[in-house]
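TASK: fixed-backbone design
INPUT:
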């Protein structure tokens, strides 16, 4: 193998240097600027994308802040509406309860009046029955017939003593 022959080492090293220098010059003139341009373009796009992402993040944070403020405002408004409607309902309930109380008081008064009238009527009937019974009892026991007016006065005075 001739490449391993020491007599050819100097020529092989020469052509290695020449090829290396030529390849280095060609790469530095043609390939490296293109690769550098691609890398610079890539870095520029990355930086632009990072700037856009930061800008979008700032816009999103602003939108979130606006949304949260609107949400807080609407919650406050809803609480205010609930409070005012609750107060209105309480006032309506109070008015209805007052009206119902008045109506029930009127019904109670009317019922008491009916009870008093029924009691008076019952007492009048009891007075008449008591007068008749007393008159008959006196007639049977003593054989004397009493006057209706005297028996009525006696029954009335006895009933007044019981009250």
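OUTPUT:
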């Amino acid at each position: 193998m001739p490449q391993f022959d020491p007599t050819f080492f100097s020529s092989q090293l020469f052509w290695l240097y020449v090829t290396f220098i030529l390849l280095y010059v060609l790469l530095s003139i043609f390939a490296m600027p293109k690769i550098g341009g691609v890398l610079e373009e890539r870095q520029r796009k990355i930086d632009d994308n990072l700037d856009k992402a930061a800008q979008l993040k700032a816009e999103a944070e602003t939108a979130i802040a606006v949304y949260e403020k609107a949400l807080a405002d609407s919650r406050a408004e809803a609480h205010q509406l609930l409070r005012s409607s609750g107060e209105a309902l309480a006032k309506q309930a109070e008015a209805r309860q007052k009206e119902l109380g008045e109506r029930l008081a009127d019904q109670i008064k009317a019922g008491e009046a009916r009870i008093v009238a029924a009691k008076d009527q019952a007492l009048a009937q009891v007075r008449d029955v008591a007068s008749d019974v007393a008159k008959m009892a006196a007639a049977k026991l003593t054989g004397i017939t009493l006057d209706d007016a005297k028996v009525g006065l006696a029954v009335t005075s006895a009933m007044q003593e019981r009250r």
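COMMENT: The CA atoms of residues 35 and 41 lie 10 Å apart.
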